[in-house]
Amino acid sequence: MSDLQQLHSAIDVTSKDIEAIVLFVYERTAEQLVANDPDSAEHKMAMAVELMLAGQVEKLTAIERAEQRGVPRPEHELAKAWNLFIAAVEPWRGTPGHDEARWRLVSYRTLGGWNSTEASHAAEPGQARREAGA
Predict the structure, then answer these.
(1) Which class for 132: exposed (0-12), middle (13-18), buried (19 or more C-beta within 10 A)?
(2) d(Cα 16, Cα 30) in Å, to the nearest integer?
(3) What are phi and psi of 43, to 5 degrees?
(4) DSSP code of 125?
(5) CB atoms inside a 10 Å sphere around CB 112
(6) pTM above 0.70?
(7) How far is CA 53 from the centre of its chain?
(8) Buried (b) or exposed (e) across 44-73, using 16+ Cβ within 10 A?
(9) Among 92, 96, 103, 102, which Cα is nearest to 125's?
(10) Nearest-CA neighbor of 80 among 13, 3, 6?
């Protein structure tokens, strides 16, 4: 568990949170990239995860760079980007190294209050498929 407080809101996301997730996922994808033939499904899946993760990192760091230039932090955009980012680590929830206190869905403020995103926990891996009957 992280020494930082439990993450609830998009305004609490830090660059250290982003870096920790990237390192966590890349350690796991690197295992698959090394262990499997480049034409294998495992190798291709690891590459896809890394590419998708890199795209989300770019979105999150662009928000952070804008904030450093004095642009107010767009909580809703940050929350959407972060929550998609979190999807990359959900399969490892409950395993060593997974920071359940920080790596969770976040909510954000709107003019009407807080959005409806449940920040207490993300969906269990495969939950959407099970609910869809797949």
Answers:
(1) exposed
(2) 21
(3) -65, -45
(4) T
(5) 6
(6) yes
(7) 8
(8) eebeebbeebeebbebbeebeeeeeeeeee
(9) 92
(10) 13
- The pLDDT, as a whole number, for residue 10 is 76
Dig out the tokens for 88 from the structure: 């990359």
Q: Provide the token pair at 23.
A: 């390192």
Q: How is residue 18 written in tokens?
A: 């982003």
The single-letter code of the amino acid at 17 is D
- Residue 86 to residue 103: CA distance in whole angstroms: 6
pLDDT (tens digit per residue) in 1-60: 444 567 777 778 888 999 999 999 999 999 999 999 999 999 999 999 999 899 888 888
Q: Which amino acid is at 93?
A: R
> What residues does 110 pair with on adjacent strands?
113
The two structure tokens encoding residue 129: 């498929």
HSE value, Cβ hemisphere, 13 Å, CA-based, for 81: 23
DSSP assignment of 56-104 equals HHHHHHHHHHHHHTTPPP-HHHHHHHHHHHHTTTGGGTTSTT--TTTSS
Q: Is 15 helix (H, G, I), strand (E, B) or coil?
A: helix
Residues 6+ apart with CB under 8 A from 22: 53, 57
DSSP single-letter state for residue 10: G
